[in-house]
Amino acid sequence: MAGLIKLLMAGVVDGVLKEILKKSGTGRTKRGKRQARTPTGVVTDLVKDAIVKAVAPKKQVSRKRTAAARSKHKRG
What we know:
Order of helices and strands: HHH
């Protein structure tokens, strides 16, 4: 009878410990994400240069003044 109670208690304690450890997050390892290597070579350099040259710089556009700004400009 004592052996049965001891076996039952051991099973309960093991279950409780597993649940506690699972909830606390201990024992788990996190795997870091790997960063992709940037490709190097003559072809990739040419492609990068072509992409950079294709994008033209934006021209500055004049903005319309608000009514308050116009009156300040008029006074000053």
